[in-house]
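Usage example:
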Amino acid sequence: MGMERIKKLKLKNEQLKNLPLFYNFIIYNYMEHGVPHFHFNEKKQYYINYHVPEKFISKIINYDED
Amino acid sequence: MTKIEEKYMDKYFYLFADCIVTKGFSRTLITDTSRKSLYFIDNSYYDTLQLFREMPVGEIILMLEDESDVDLFQSFLNDLINQNLGLFVDNISLLPEVEKVWDHPSTITNGIIDIRDELHDFDKIFIEYDALGCEYIEIRSYSERSAEDIMNIVSRSAGRGLKYMHFLTKFSEEYLAPNVLKEITDRHTFLHLTVFGAPADKISALNNFTKANQIAFLQQDIGSSKCCGRISLDSFRIQSVKGTTENLLYNGCLNRKISIDERGYIKNCPSMERSFGHINEQSLLSVVVNEEFLALWGINKSMINVCSACEFRSVCTDCRAFVNTEGGVYAKPSKCKYDPYSGVWG
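Running the assembly step on the lines above writes:
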């Protein structure tokens, strides 16, 4: 069973100028997360939106190095 | 310099609500949480930003005594507009600031599980993390782990509410075989694998093959949880308004986190000394009501020595495991080399 994709809000240029940026926030996050996807969880009986967290869970990797 | 047109003088300047302003000792930082950008401004503009919500642009200009100040102010306004950080509005009360509150339906949002040679009881662990509503887990193996081992561990989380798992493991020659790791990430699409200690001459080829498969190879070695807590510009991530608010009000690393160290001891963070019992004898649920365990969640950077003067408070997630010897529980993270008083990274 497919899940309807999140669509970008259709806003005119005038509206875009006057609305706070976070009106379109959901689409920015959706694009950043690489391969987010929905999956129906049989045990829990709901859809889970898999995605990477916004912050690093730990700081063990030295991001200054390769 | 373009002067602000007369027609805007009776209007308010609205700094978008998703732009978070943090004043430090030497400069102020504007964090654009939607465009994921950081802007540094001089502290003298911080007070001006506060005035934007109280009076129209024209009234602010009348308060400035020197012509040079007026020019600088107009230049500042132009910069904010050019960077799309705000706009002129008639009635600013219709555009309130984001309320500075944060909460989450889960008791625990994230956790770290360290392993070395022996494995923990992952069935029990995943059941307990799930009961707490945990969404993100990082598993760190400091010893070589077979692909079969990794698959077994990750599979035990099947059917839970996890949204993401990051598995770090030491490099093994077995991973050079094509598809051996890809089979794991293909089966568990919420999994990202990071392999550290990979041979320098093979890194490029390995990453070329795996970069589309949620697998990354690093040359650096990670020997234990003592390697954690690094704070640098590259360790920062600009979060949404929600995440940034949590980061400002609570401890960016430890809030809603529970961890298990490589010996099985339950801790706020595996790098910490203080433990709250062994996972084989204690449940995670019994630890998350312990007041001593919960106390660290509320230590935000405004309470921490030196950090309270740092403009990176909105994006830095702090570290309470490795801190300077002076200052006790509110001491500056010892692995942070930034000096907010000079604005220089050491």
